[in-house]
Amino acid sequence: MKQPSSLSAEASEKELYALLHISPEASDEEIRRAYRQWAQVYHPDKYQDHQMKDIATENFQRIREAYEILTDEYKRVTSGLELGPKLNKLEEIKEELEKLRRQKEEEKLSAHTRTTGSLLANISLPQYLEGGGIMRGMAMSSDVQSQLSKRNTVAMGGNLAVTGNSGTAAASALLRHQLSSVSTVEIMATAGLRALIGVQTSRHLSIHSTGTTGIAVSLRDGSVNLSNTWTRQLSETSTGNIQLVLGAESNIAVGWQKKDEKNSASGELKFGSSSFGASAHYTHWFSSKSHGRVAGRVGSTDLEFEIGGGRRISNFSTLRMLYTIGIQGISWRFELLRGGQKLVIPVLLSRELNILIAMGALMTPSSLYFLLKKFVAKPYYLRKEKQKSLENKEKSATQVREAREAAEKAQKLLQNVSNRKRNRQVEAGGLVIIKALYGSSKAFKRVAEIRVANDIASEVLDVTIPLNFLVNDSGQLKLHKGIKKSGIMGFCDPCPGEPKQLFLEYTFNGQEHQALSDDLEEVLIPEEGRRL
């Protein structure tokens, strides 16, 4: 059965049931009875030897705390069951609470402060073939938005662009104040080539519509621009908007956007006093990781068609490859998005609309993407995953070693009673556990003869002693369903994070049997197993 990726509160609670060897549906009386039985084995007063007394004290404390937690709702919470991992000491609980507090503060800070940025490297092959440099220009931008209070947000940004021997720069600042639950006002200013100052206010006109009005004044020539925008929700997944701008560049624009789980589309028509234009795009998500995109623009100064797609290459990164053909030429466009940052590399292939270049450029990105994925990206992430796995094993090595030592100590106190129970079952021809191993499912699959396999010793734990101890007076062994066996007294987790199984070799009525069960699977023997 597949293992959970992390230990939940429910799983922690079930470990306590495993420790007392009771069902999750056990009554308070059954919990008390189980506690008394285990206390008879692990009570420190039973042992004179100092080493054995220390082992008994340690395990008796585990049993007592499990009993108290399962029978006391307050301790059930303060024990850390609601925090995730099982916490055994007050210091550990305080440390975990402090860790959670710091984590929430960091999340709160990151939620209130958001940064975005982009870097553009413009490449031109025609320019390079003509003897010039391969770089047409570069540009970079950065923006920071921070929520100062519940009603106030500030945003600052800047950009720098270089083309040939000339360059431009600009900076901007914006303050947004929420006047009420339905209206906001924004004050903004920019410095640079288009220096201006402006004010904009927005208000929800109804449940489905919003109106925005703004005024901007140029600091260079004093010209004024007025703008009005009306936005309305057309359906659950689509919106429409109309924008009217009056000023030096007067225009009216009508737009539409639609987005659902698999598709995203938008379109806009724009008519100005000296220009017109139309644009549209459509994106389809083939899966949670990959998508395709088609876009086009046409107008008095623009004619362009774009096709391409992208793929999520990690939890935080997406790679896009786009092919563009238009009146400005034929080009590729590569984009790498990670978090709020973007790297954009446009590559101009030709300034002319040559059909051969157009067809070749259309086919080449697909081949390039395949080669990058097969020989660069995939090997890189395989190496990264392997390295991560090795690091996790190194980190957990100490924890596993300590857990094994604790399990072996617990088994030492069970051994005498376990041997007596085993001998009684041998005399009666009942259930006798000959060999029991608990550990990695992969390890059991690698060996043909489990009972003689020594090469998997580091991945499994011998649990013969505790299972013979758990055989009841009726000659039956029962391990409850839905409970990780690593929580059973005398067990531990020899391979954290990996699926685990329990191998049993036993005799019943003089006949030998084998059984292999998943970690959360119920075990009930005697039952019919595979005859040796």
UniProtKB/TrEMBL annotation:
UniProt keyword terms in alphabetical order: Chaperone, Coiled coil
Annotated J domain residues: 15-75
Transmembrane regions: none
Pfam families given in the database record: DnaJ, DnaJ-like_C11_C, DNAJC11_beta-barrel
PROSITE patterns linked: DNAJ_2
Taxonomic source organism: Spirodela intermedia (Intermediate duckweed)
Coiled-coil segments: 83-114, 383-427
InterPro entries, alphabetized: AtJ13, DnaJ-like_C11_C, DnaJ_domain, DNAJC11-like_beta-barrel, J_dom_sf
Cellular component, GO annotation: endoplasmic reticulum
Protein name: J domain-containing protein
Superkingdom of this protein's organism: Eukaryota
